[in-house]
Amino acid sequence: MATEKSDRYYLVREDMLSEAMQKTLEAKELLERGKAKTVFEAVNAVDLSRSAFYKYRDGIFPFHTMVKEKIITLSINLEDRSGNLSRLLSIIASAQANVLTINQTIPLQGRANITISIETASINIDIDELVKKLEKMEGVERVDLVGSGF
What does the alpha-carbon distance between residue 25 and residue 19 come to, in Å, rounded to a whole number? Predict the structure, then answer.
């Protein structure tokens, strides 16, 4: 059974997290601080399986990273039609988000992948709402939040 990403978030006290979730956070911190160079090194250092790390890594974050989040990176599959990229950028601009970088692959089979890094400090809507607006745009096949930073 396929599961959809939830649009709901929860604030949970650390001692309520499973051991695998806590170790995933530790492994992510080792990677972010450069104390581990690879996922293999990080998971070994905290005694966690790689499968558990990959299961939780995109769904669990320290509270401070969510509060300070100022830059997001989106991966978007876009139909290769005249004006689609312009419309996509207009949606981002209307949310008062600032495009920092944009990369587009050469279209193959009528589709291109767009990777956009956006500064969200002055955004006037929730990030989830922006993603939903982009997903609803005609010609957009998929939108994934692939990274965030501050």
Answer: 10
The answer to whether 77 and 113 have CB atoms below 8 angstroms apart is yes
Q: What is the pTM of this model?
A: 0.55
Q: Which long-range contacts (CB under 8 A, 24 or more apart) does 46-50 make?
A: 47/23, 48/20, 48/23, 48/24
Spatial separation of the C-alpha atoms in residues 2 and 35, rounded to whole Å: 35
Q: For residue range 52-99, what is the model confidence (pLDDT) as tens digits?
A: 999 998 888 775 555 445 888 999 999 999 999 999 999 999 999 999
Where in the chain are the domains? 14-60, 67-149
Query: Can you say whether residue 7 is alpha, beta or left, with left for phi > 0 and alpha for psi between -120 and 50 degrees?
Result: alpha
User: Which residues, listed in sequence order, are joined to residue 78 by a DSSP beta bridge?
Assistant: 112, 140
As a CATH number, domain 67-149 is 3.30.70.260
Cα Rg for the chain, rounded, in angstroms? 17
Q: For the ranges 8-12, 23-27, 104-108, 144-148, which has the lowest average pLDDT?
A: 8-12
